[in-house]
Amino acid sequence: MTVLPVQPLDPAAPQRRVPYAPGASLLRPYVPLATALRAGTTTPRDVLEQCLATMRRDEPAIAAFVTHDIKAARRAADAATARWRAGAPLSPVDGMPVVVKDMIETIDLPTQMNNPIYAGWSARRDAAAVHALRQGGALILGKTVTTEFACGNSGPTRNPYDTSRTPGGSSSGSAAAVGAGMASLGFGTQTHASTIRPAGYCGAYALKATHGALHVGGVTPLAATLDHLGLIGASLEDVWASAMVISRLVGGTPPHPGISGPMETPAARRPKRLVRLATLGWDETPDTSRAAFEAAVTRIAAAGVEVLDAGGDAEVAALEAALREIGDFANDLLAWESRWPLASYRNHGDGMVGQRIQDLLARAEGMDAARYARAVADRERLRAQVAALSSRTDGFVMLCSSGPAIQDHGFTGSRNYALPWTLVGGPSFALPVLAAEGLPLGLQLAGFADRDADACAVAAWLRDTLLPDA
Fold first, then answer.
1. Is the pTM of this model over 0.90?
2. Is the pLDDT of residue 286 over 50?
3. Which residues are catalytic?
4. Fewest 10 Å CB contacts: which of 253, 255, 278, 377?
């Protein structure tokens, strides 16, 4: 059995189940504290100490972290506190406690990717997005557990609301840490479903921006045309402000200039029309989760929004039919594009990579360039179908996952709800506004490529409309 840099799941670890209610969660927002930070009624050091207290209490059960540097975090929090007191914060995220998925380079902490090949390995730089948030004053609290190379063996992390369940993957530790209140923001990645699904499972907000709009320099590559940097946060304001700091300080992945929009979260805007999507996920969604989604759609419609679906609109029906056929070409894209680096890792020895990676490489070895070209063409047709709806709708609503987190730690759950917008390449938000079976159930709002600010405005309206205390 492969020995991993992170310890395997400990059956003797503490167990817990925390009742979940949207709007009364464990999240610890930061950017919404701006008024209190300016007034001095709270400080970045206060927020950090609250996060650390939660870590001391809950990390033994949740196992979100690979490593951390509390002394450095306290120094950074004290420096941010001084800037807020002087009325000169560097940005809205100055002093924000941030955790970093262990696929993303940090100059001061190792980047080990949940694989022994990189055990103890440290980069000599920060990834572009980490660099940007540090420039904006954010503090890096630690590195969080990922699945192996973001596509293979799971780590030990457990769901913060029920430790018998997965936190999702591959951004497991970031989602769990933010969902538990151990940080206000977590860096993730998404190549198929790895930001939106774990955020939904753990009761957190998330943004998977337009492909390329957040700089992926220093993020360990997997599949170039699928890899997205993801942000998992304690509030919509936390993910939006972080995205804008990154965009303004380092831009997007060249040649993308980065997200265009205000530093402040766009004002909530009621959409005129939304499309509800079932995707393949609806077939596997239990009745309790279906009922929660249907109730949300009913409230959206009652607020004056026209909701289109496949039953009443031929263009939506055609899109739904296309979404039922994405699995093969999505896996072909992933397998072909990940040959490097995965084959290079396998060269260290077959036993040094897990079965999921072996399976991806076997799929790639059964492909040729023509098959990959067909997969690219299939994706372009899907994107064209979505773009054709841009004059008819303000966005798309669906679940983040096919029900609450599953009771499994080796499998991180179905990708059927999150995968479509990875392929589309447009922005999607996870909103923790629903619950099923007393557990988080994320609602996903998806938008059109390079209209991230528009999508955020609609996401804010959905949050304000659907959260009980909004």
1. yes
2. yes
3. 101, 170, 194
4. 255
